[in-house]
Design a protein that fits this description.
It is built from 3 helices and no strands. It is mainly α. The protein has 2 domains: about 45 residues; about 60 residues. The radius of gyration is 22 Å and the shape is flat.
Length: about 110
């Protein structure tokens, strides 16, 4: 049985991590907002265009392969049980992002032909 100090440390570490991550995220968003405001005031702001097609392709490929590896691992390790869901979820999200990428490419191709 672990000591009481070890149990307290194991309990406190995730709390400290979440609080620290929240503080870092807050200051990152605050400073990027201030930076954008200053750039707009000086007339140097250029709007960032997010390339959702490339993002969906890259994240779809990564999630599909990670999910497929996890599915194979859990089938070999434990068979068809509940832990298999930890591989099926990223696999299905990755496949859906890849399907979205392909559908969007077809829609763009049709739009360019017209």
């Amino acid at each position: 049985m672990p000591s009481a100090a070890a149990q307290v440390i194991v309990t406190v570490i995730p709390i400290v991590g979440i609080v620290t991550g929240g503080v870092l995220l807050f200051f990152f968003l605050y400073w990027s907002y201030k930076q954008r405001v200053l750039m707009i005031e000086k007339g140097q702001y250029v709007k960032f265009e997010f390339d959702f097609d490339t993002f969906s392709l890259l994240s779809g490929l990564v999630l599909t392969f990670v999910g497929a590896c996890l599915v194979v691992f859990f089938i070999i390790l434990e068979g068809f049980t509940y832990p298999l869901l930890s591989g099926l979820i990223p696999l299905s999200v990755g496949v859906s992002l890849l399907v979205y990428y392909m559908l969007r490419a077809k829609m763009n191709k049709r739009r360019n032909e017209q």
